[in-house]
Structures are given as C-alpha cells and as structure tokens.
Amino acid sequence: xxxxxxxxxxxxxxxxxxxxxxxxxxxxxxxxxxxxxxxxxxxxxxxxxxxxxxxxxxxxxxxxxxxxxxxxxxxxxxxxxxxxxxxxxxxxxxxxxxxxxxxxxxxxxxxxxxxxxxxxxxxxxxxxxxxxxxxxxxxx
Length: 140
Prior knowledge:
Elements: E1 2-5, E2 9-11, H1 15-22, E3 36-41, E4 45-50, E5 54-64, E6 68-73, E7 82-93, E8 96-106, H2 109-138
Antiparallel strand pairs: 1-8, 2-8, 3-4, 4-5, 5-6, 6-7, 7-8
C-alpha cells in the first residue's frame, strides 16, 4: 500500500481536543477544499460531491482515543481503488500535539499518476485547515 502524507503540523492544543473534533464527521466540512459541495454528515459517516469526480461516501472505522482515526469509503462510493484516510495525533507536551494526515491507497499506476497531485493537495489542505482552526481558537 502506498501513501501520500501531509507535512507534520504542530498544534498548540491538547490531543484530546483535536481528537474529539476529528472523531465527529460533522466537524469535517470546515476542513474541506472548495471543490467539495453537497456536504451531509453524522458522527461516523459523510457524503459529498467533488467537482469532476462525483459523489463520495466515507465512514470512520477506527477510533484510537487521542492518537488515531481511520476513514474508508462507505458502500456506494464508486472510486476504482481502495484507500484509507488516517489522522494521526502525537502528544508532544501537555498542550502541544503533532498531527499528520495520510492517504494510504492501492491504485493502478495510471490512476496514481493522475490522482497524486490532487490527493497531495487534499491532505495538505486538511492538515493546514485543522492547524488554522485550532490556532485561531488558541490565539496563535
């Protein structure tokens, strides 16, 4: 399985607070890029449309408190490859957390060549918006 990762981001916030935010899909809409429309969510599932791709449905399948959240495609998503979106959190000190967002995938080489840059942009946007959200909250 190959992966595309965001840069590590240091967020001046407790890992539990970041984890609680990420563990609820209702909070993800604010992290999405502009190409995402028609957002619908509950705590563990979401669906949305990506311009040029179509409807995507996701579900959270693993929650490891304060350290890891794993997201996979939900039934009905017509993407021609398998993937996991993984949010990793590591406590650095009491009020600092290092975050990284990874997109692990198994896709044909041709699709990987076309999708690589947009997927890198996706994990970078998610990571950056997550940091900005908590930086604004803490006044950083």
